[in-house]
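seq:
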Amino acid sequence: MTSIQMPQLGETIIEGTILKWLKQEGETVQADEPLFEISTDKVDTEVPSPVTGVVAKILVAEGETVAVGTRLAEIDSGDAGAVGAAAPGSSSAPTPAAPVAPVAAQLPDRGPRSQILSPLVRKLAEEHGVDLATVSGSGSGGRITKKDVMAAVASGGSAGATAPRLRAVPTPAVAGAGEEVVPMSHIRKAIASHMVGSLQTTARAWNMVEVNMEAVVRLRERSKEAFAAREGFNLTYTPFVTRAVTEALMDFPMVNAELRGEELIVRHTVNMGIAVSYEDGLIVPVVKGADTMNLVGIARAVNDLATRARAKKLLPDEVQGATFSITNPGPFGSIMSVPIINTPNTAILAFDAIEKRPVVIDDAIAIRHMVYISMSWDHRVIDGVLASQFLGRVKENLETWDFAEDLGL
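struct:
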């Protein structure tokens, strides 16, 4: 019998919520076949079975939040006494042990919400003086997450307020004629919390440049078939923009900085967040060490992360640690965007649809492939001059670089 445990899906992850069992008791599961879906504060993902066998017993129901190491199920694999962590990338199976109690059960009773709080959430609340009784949880079953606490901090929900914050009491939605009530998903709630928190904490400003993409478009057109044949996926414009932005960030590191309290953390490496849309909403996987990659390396990393994001196979560590973010609404027809900053980043860049437009070149009207590239940025960290200089460098890179050698074609 193989025991399946809650996996450690990242260094900072201490618990997870079972969203859905993909196999039920009595059903056969193959090794590496998805067994269940879990949710953490960072990402929702599928977890594969480490063995082939029959699901003998499910120990944790859908919707329950338990600690890393908690026994979740047992699979009759014909190997008595085996224990499997079912953790992607784990190096070895843990030693058989008694079931680990859920995090909430190990905490002292500190009120009606004590049974759905993780140690991380409680620690953050204590550090910032947040009264958890006034916080509405966005997690599964009303669980309060780290993002909920930080949103409360951003909105002034810390200790010392002259009056308690009023907590909205949810009422059942009533649909009228021609209306449909659709509950918000876990991901949709997380996005909402993060976006509202960003707007409440940043001094957002915005500017834009227009870029002549003619050289890039022509290079892509003549290279895309050979690239796809060699790499096994299509060459998009995202790697070109990411490469140009990464180089500009190395020359303007303040745009790549983070404000922590009253200190600025200035980074000289780039972890690029790439916004990916999928059926549940939007997620921002991170290309770690983008400054060490050429165009092809970035293309491979972006394709891998986007593919696994849409298949719900990302790990929590792959959606955190971004130093800058890029979003690309262009394929959906958008020609100009004002994105919300992906905090704690200082800025986010958007590139929209590439279109043929009439432009003036050498005092003559010409038709060129043009695109608007815009950036929302935090005025607490950088000013308009720096933002404009940075965007100017991105424009220069895209218009003047010879990417052909970088492609290796």
